[in-house]
């Protein structure tokens, strides 16, 4: 492995496959959540589809909320911050100015996200990442202690705002009554079954809520995770796993009890439909995310678990392409553009579909990377970043 040292910090040129595998794992968890919003408009209106009210349906919803919601988004954000440092390393090795590269990358990411919202899925995260990455770029020279303190401060502000909302804000004054929410969900689900113009209208119709969520919750928590990922990359967390085994065991012993308990409370309180539930999740989801990371990394560094890295790394290596592909599959499965299954697939079957689609992505990603260096979306984004056509 070729290593460079800049400002006292080792710079590794070799790809960190654990990071790719973790990114692939994050995509699986994100899809398990996103597919519920792709399949009908009921989750977006914070109500359950009355057509699926069996105990098994309830158990599937509970599992997604407790084990997946708000956890894998944090992991994806953490890895974005980790990869930010790897991008900085690459610019250093190439002798290129880092800031212009990242500005162009942010513009490219925002453009891809905007297209994603309009054409595929209104619950996009790329536009949020693009904007928040500009803040990270402004902070990327700060010391580790400052980065960690800033991340903690951001989380404290988010939690304080949620607690204040739970105590003093009358949700009934701003949220529709359950009957109105059910009616809106039914109408929006029907719109998903219409023409391409209807589907685009449905996607764009949720833009206001997307911006509000990005400003109040997703953006700040993403920035906090970006900063944590940046510090982890500086300390080469996944390049020197043997030196961090004690830390990873601690992440498991603390993360699973706290994170699982918090996830259960979040789900029991009604998930996103409860401000108190969201508050509990914001506080405890990072613990479960950390436990997931530690467990997967430790497994991948055993003889019996090494296959997990082999399977997951190709998906994570072309994560942007796979993220967009998941939304494209959602359009083809659930909207009037494709099979028109919106409102017809039960929560347990959505979990099965998640695994089937992800297994297909594992196979296709492995096949693609044997023939190409980048995924299609990565090729476009790299072109924007480098401002020249990348190699094949």
Automatic annotation (TrEMBL):
Keywords: Membrane, Transmembrane, Transmembrane helix. InterPro entries: Bact_Transport_Assoc (IPR052529), DUF418 (IPR007349). The chain crosses the membrane at residues 21-42, 62-85, 106-139, 151-169, 207-232, 253-269, 275-299, 320-343, 349-369. Signal peptide: none annotated. The keyword Transmembrane helix applies. The keyword Nuclease does not apply. Pfam families: DUF418. Residues 232-387 form the DUF418 domain. This is Predicted membrane protein. It comes from Brachybacterium faecium (strain ATCC 43885 / DSM 4810 / JCM 11609 / LMG 19847 / NBRC 14762 / NCIMB 9860 / 6-10). The lineage of its organism: Bacteria, Bacillati, Actinomycetota, Actinomycetes, Micrococcales.
């Amino acid at each position: 492995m070729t290593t460079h040292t800049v400002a006292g910090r080792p710079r590794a040129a070799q790809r960190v496959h654990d990071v790719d595998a973790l990114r692939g794992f994050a995509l699986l968890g994100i899809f398990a959540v996103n597919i519920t919003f792709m399949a009908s408009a009921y989750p977006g209106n914070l109500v359950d589809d009355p057509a699926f009210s069996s105990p098994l349906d309830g158990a599937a919803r509970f599992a997604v909320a407790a084990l997946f919601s708000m956890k894998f988004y944090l992991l994806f954000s953490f890895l974005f911050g980790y990869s930010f440092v790897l991008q900085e390393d690459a610019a250093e090795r190439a002798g290129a100015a880092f800031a212009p590269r990242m500005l162009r990358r942010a513009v490219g990411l925002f453009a891809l996200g905007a297209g994603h919202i309009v054409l595929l899925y209104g619950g996009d995260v790329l536009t949020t990442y693009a904007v928040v990455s500009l803040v990270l770029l402004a902070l990327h020279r700060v010391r580790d202690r400052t980065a960690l303190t800033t991340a903690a401060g951001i989380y404290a502000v988010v939690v304080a705002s949620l607690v204040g909302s739970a105590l003093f804000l009358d949700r009934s004054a701003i949220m529709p009554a359950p009957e109105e929410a059910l009616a809106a969900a039914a109408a929006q689900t029907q719109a998903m079954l219409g023409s391409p113009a209807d589907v685009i209208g449905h996607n764009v119709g949720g833009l206001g809520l997307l911006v509000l969520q990005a400003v109040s919750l997703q953006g700040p928590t993403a920035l906090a995770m970006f900063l944590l990922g940046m510090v982890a990359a500086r300390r080469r967390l996944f390049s020197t796993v043997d030196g961090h085994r004690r830390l990873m065991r601690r992440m498991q012993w603390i993360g699973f009890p706290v994170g699982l308990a918090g996830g259960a409370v979040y789900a029991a309180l009604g998930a996103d439909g409860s401000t108190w539930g969201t508050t509990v999740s914001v506080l405890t989801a990072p613990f479960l995310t950390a436990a997931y990371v530690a467990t997967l990394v430790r497994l991948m560094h055993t003889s019996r678990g090494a296959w997990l890295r082999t399977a997951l790394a190709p998906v994570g290596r072309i994560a942007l392409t796979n993220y967009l592909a998941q939304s494209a599959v959602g359009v083809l499965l659930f909207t009037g553009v494709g099979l028109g299954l919106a409102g017809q697939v039960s929560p347990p079957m959505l979990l099965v579909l998640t695994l089937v689609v992800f297994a297909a992505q594992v196979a296709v990603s492995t096949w693609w990377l044997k023939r190409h260096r980048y995924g299609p979306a990565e090729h476009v984004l790299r072109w924007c970043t480098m401002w020249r056509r990348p190699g094949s």
